[in-house]
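Researcher: Let's try something more involved. This one mixes different molecule types, so please make sure each is placed in the same coordinate frame as the others.
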Amino acid sequence: MKYFRTKIKGLMALPAAILLSTSCFAATPSTADINTTGLAITDDTVTVGILHSLTGTMAISETGAQEAEKLAISQINEMGGILGRKIEIVQEDGASDWPTFAEKSRKLLVRDKVAAVFGAWTSASRKAVLPVFEKENGLLYYPTFYEGLEQSKNVIYTGQEATQQILDGLNWVAKEKKAKTFYLIGSDYIWPRTSMKIARKHIENVLGGKVVGEEYKPLGDTQFGSVINKIRLKKPDVIYAAVVGGSNVAWFKQLKAAGITAKKQTLLTISVTEDEVLGIGGENLEGFYSIMKYFQSQDNENNKAFVKAFKEMWGEDSVIGDVTQAAYLGPWLWKAAVEKAGSFDVDKVVKASEEGEIELKTAPEGYVKLHPNHHLWSVARVGEWKKDGQATVVYESGLIEPNPFPEGYQ
Amino acid sequence: MFDEYTYSELGSIFAMQGFAGISLFSVLLLMALGLAIIFGQMGVINMAHGEFMAVGAYTTYFMSTLTETYFPSLMPYYFLVAIVVAFCVAGVLGYLAEYALIRHLYKRPLDTLLATWGLSLIMQQSFRTLFGAREVSPTLPDWLLGSYQPTDTIDIPLNGMFVLALTAVVTLGVFYLLYKSSWGLRVRATTQNRVMSGAVGINTKSVDRYTFALGCGIAGIAGAAFTTIASTGPTTGTLYIVDTFMVVVFGGAASLIGTIVSAFSIAQAQSLLEFFISGSMAKVYTLFALVLILMFKPEGLFASKVRR
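Model: All components are placed in one shared frame. Result:
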């Protein structure tokens, strides 16, 4: 009984999350009206797909995202579903393999006829499924912060594009830490390289600072001894890092072992969330900064309810990172758009989304709003890591307009 | 690039860079030793070598959690015990793998390649099922964290020094086992002439099994040691396997000295290049040089002089 009560309490905050109330649909609309394109919708159910890697290298990152999506869907179902229909899930495993992602997304769209898909994580997997979604006219909610330079009719991007994450963080560090010189280091693939390009332009043209080194390490590399010595030689005010995956852990462990700690060196990273900290260990990160739009420690009512519901569903030890939260927004944004459109038809849902009025007042990260360019308005936050693996938010920007094709930064 | 620095600063950087090279050398050598023994003595290419390292790493993580929960006062010492346990666990698993899988395939060396690769996939998914998909890190004792500072400007990583010492101990141990003990004599005899060794009463099957177990056990030690420099996940092994093969192939199969020399030259080339050019390009040049050298010396640096 106690479980039931807390669950209800946790849910109480969420109905408010949807500005567009469901109450105007007193009677359940008929299936023929809301589904003219043959999607898998019956009089009391609607089927959606979840497509993340449950096996392979990316499982580490994507597990949290699919857990959050399932939480959101079960909460929506407890509120009565969408247009009077309960959501059913078909889950597929992308297996960290990009062709598999494409194949599974085709299966979800063609055979299962799902009304929407929540999934993909890496840019590579998104690029792989994009042609399938465009050809079959599917609808994808993509949760990861990414490099930008993309806008598809068939994708809603619930994470930040590069400028939303990078610019305000750099402004903050230049102002607060009086930083003039920067050392950029990242893993060697498209996201870090694009992000660093934007960062460099901003540092040189806007902040009037200097980039004293730019370095890329192969994915999976675990030896940072030489790079750390190079950094020592250049004495930058700030190390700006976008190292990912297994390398990330090695990078921070070796920094600490080399005696480079927050006491001596300011470090700002765009690739560490609570998920990564589990592997890195809070003691190796203590005092360093991350720029994200969400931190688990955020102190607001929506987030407290979200964290509580998440832990109830997935265990007390769960941690929630930036992408997990962004993934949680997907089903809610879809619900809002479907209800606004009064239909599950992809074209109508996209049109409703593009009117720029879809908003979630009580998303865990705070207020979010969908921009006509399919990205979310969002806030950039700088978090300072503590020993226990949580971050204290030390800076919050205002709402930043998404700008996936930034002029002057390409 | 060095104009604006004082001599003492440059001196410190070179000292630390020198240590970075030596530290990379010890890492490469420790990774490659187990594989070199198995490949050299038995001709089996163990594609699951990286996963046996992961077994060692997960054992260390398990020991760390166990100690933290039940004997928190012993935290400063558990790591040494964990290394021994990692060796035993990986060794026993290796012994079982040889018994169940490898021994049936000695006459089909290419199939061992496939079989051990399959084994590596099975092991990866088992780690995922047992320990979860997320990466884990054991809690390290304080004496392994931070750096040693002989002067104000020089920081030598303690974990690097530890891995270096461990590598030295393991390498000497392997040399002793193979060249000074009677068991080593039997191993070397089997390598040189299997049929003849059998004829003079050496149980070659048992020699194979223990050699394989030893190789895997050393991989376990390597895995335990690497928890000090990186994290552990189900696919951790794949991060190391390429470097490991590179060292063994370049050094020449069946030669421990070759493995050592090769690890040393690859490590020095890599860390020096990385200091002057970017990380990715350093790797490209190192691999390019390796390919060139192997074109002229396909047997590796130290080819074995075994009559075939």
